Amino acid sequence: MARKSEIMKKSVGIDYSIFESGSIAFDYERMMKETGYSLQEIEEIQKQTSVGSTPLYELKNITKLVRKFSSPGKGARIFIKDEACNPSGSFKARRAATSVYHAQKLGYKGVIAATSGNYGAAVASQAAMRGLKCIIVQECYDSRGVGQPEIIEKARACEAYGAEVVQLTVGPELFYSFLLLLEETGYFNASLYTPFGIAGVETLGYELSMDFRQREGKDPDVVVITNAGGGNLTGTARGLIKAGAFDTKIVGASVNLEGLHMASDEQFNKKSFTTGHTGFGIPFATWPDRSDVPRSAARPLRYMDRYVTVNQGSVFYMTELLAQVEGLERGPAGNTALAAAFSIAQELDEDKIIVVQETEYTGAGKHILPQLTFAKENGIELIIGDPKEEIPGKNIILPKNPGYMHTTEIDLDKIKRSYIKNCIANYKVETVTENDLEFLAQDTKSSKEYVINVLKDLNVNVER
Amino acid sequence: MDAKKGDWVRIHNIILTPDKRASNLPEDTRKVPLEMWDKGFLLNEEANIGQEVEIETYIGRRVTGILVEINPYWGHDFGKCVPEILYIGRQARALLKEGEDIE
User: What domains are defined for chain A?
Assistant: First the structure.
């Protein structure tokens, strides 16, 4: 659609061209600074609608279970930040709070977001608080009209907050409908990927550091973050850096859905996770600017130290375990990072601290029973055994005991190379400038030397 | 007559027929249309299911489409019994207790 960039500019109130260099590089920090808000301002904005300052729990029984399967002296303490305590039941309220505040400040009458997940409920809830109208556009059904219970529940929640929910069948053309709605209504595009959205998550990282300094006298050693579009990881990591927690390691975790095509009508209901999975995690890490804004503020490779996957069965298992031995009944999607933490904690010394930085609400549809019932009804076999043997779209394997929980490493080097390759291809660059080089080094948390070596392999010239 | 003016209804539309769909889609998705559902208050004086109608959505937008449901409700629930998960809590509790004995 030819009017795309014009509609986009009007609907987010940002002229992205002023940050552009004309090549690969753009001024990320300037974009975050000039269009976003300071951390203190965001804390104030979020306080207005009671977002943030969520409780932190030490998962003592889960830690005890970890130690049963660790070598002597190993088994880090696991903590969880209970983001389900936010108004709409997930950390996404932080992201929505800044976007909706900003929309109101600029005088927009309403907000629109394209999301099938917790973000929709968050935008609808914040819009209700600020008296703005809200439309949520969802990819919801397959061609039989069958929808994931988790997504249906989200539609219900959005309606409960007074939003209009436009439900669509599978396909990336959703973006086209989304643009038409933006054009028709003139509402604000509460994209997940604007600087406001990402800056909203910075308070989560900042709180983590403050919580632990107060409670344990130090920053957490490792923070595990469920990774999909990259905003959760980017915002949390930036908040930790703003707090001065430079030594905290950032680990991304996604549910492994390898082999399932995200735009496939037939495979749409063969997956049991609608977010936090590799179907978003990998493409958004290797090409963040595929999002619904020209330059995404979510750039996970800038901050990620390690990236792991877990299988679907392990996440369901951890969700049940969290309820059974910690007394916390929460939704499955937020527990992706918890499943990874269970395994990573076994590598670390007992005095180390590992934090899972979010939970999400649970309810009809968004709970392991409806989700597993749905999987079975869609021909997925549920097995108790070795998660390593799980085949996404065919079966779900619950670990037969906690010792079978494991993570699989994603080769970050490969992901970074793929990102650089995509930058070259998408910007049709023949010669990389010094400015690009610096940008790519920052965007991949590497060095100029690293980028030069990758470019050499791609036969791309470097202007020096 | 199935519905009258002011009733809360659900409508359906075909946004793109298969021949108009994006070319980069998987084969199975390209074979089917892109469909849309929305809800609102019926603006027609009266209508039957299957008829084209106009609605006013909850936020006040006017949309036309085929009437498919009156007083639509959410049917999702807490699922059926999934016996496969029942071992998880008991096994973990037993492991935790065993630990106390050793310590």
Answer: 4-45+90-195 (3.40.50.1100), 47-88+196-409 (3.40.50.1100), 427-462 (no CATH)
User: Rounded to the nearest 5°, which phi and psi values hold at B22?
Assistant: -55, 150
Say whether A162 and B58 touch across the interface (CB within 8 A): yes
- DSSP single-letter state for residue B93: H
Q: Rounded distance, CA A310 to CA A317, Å? A: 11
Cβ-proximal residues to B61 (8 Å cutoff; 6+ apart), any chain: A135, A164, A184, A185, B40
* B54-63 pLDDT tens trace: 999 999 999 9
Task: Band the pLDDT of B27: cuts 50, 70, 90.
Answer: very high
**pLDDT-flagged residues of chain A (< 50):** none
Burial of A120 per CB tally in 10 Å (0-12, 13-18, 19+):
buried
- Name the β-bridge partners of B34: B16
Whole-angstrom distance, CA of residue B91 vs CA of residue B103: 19
Q: Is the ipTM of this complex over 0.90?
A: yes
| Neighbour tally for B79: CB within 10 Å | 20
Per the confidence metrics, is the pTM higher than 0.90? yes
Identify the pLDDT of residue B50: 98
A401–B93 C-beta distance less than 8 A? no
Reduced to 3 states (helix: H, G, I; strand: E, B; else coil), residue A211 is: helix
C-beta atoms of B82 and A68 within 8 A = no
CA geometry: angle at A224 spanning A313 and B85, to 5°? 20
Domains and CATH numbers, chain B: 3-75 (2.30.30)
Q: What is the pLDDT of residue B99?
A: 58
**Which DSSP string corresponds to A115-184?**
-SSHHHHHHHHHHHHHT-EEEEEEEEE-TTS-B-HHHHHHHHHHHHTT-EEEEEESSTTHHHHHHHHHHH
Predicted local confidence at residue B53, as pLDDT: 98
Q: Reduced to 3 states, what is the DSSP secondary structure of residue A447?
A: coil
pLDDT at A3: 82
Question: pLDDT category, B102, cuts 50, 70, 90?
Answer: very low
Q: What's the CA gap between A167 and A135, in Å, rounded?
A: 11
CB A392 within 8 A of CB A256: yes
Chain B residues interacting with chain A (CB cutoff of 8 angstroms): 15-16, 21-22, 24-26, 28-29, 31-40, 57-61, 74, 76-82, 84-85, 87-89, 91-93, 95-96, 99
Output the CA torsion sign for A191, A193, A194, A197: positive
CB contact under 8 A, B88 and A320: yes
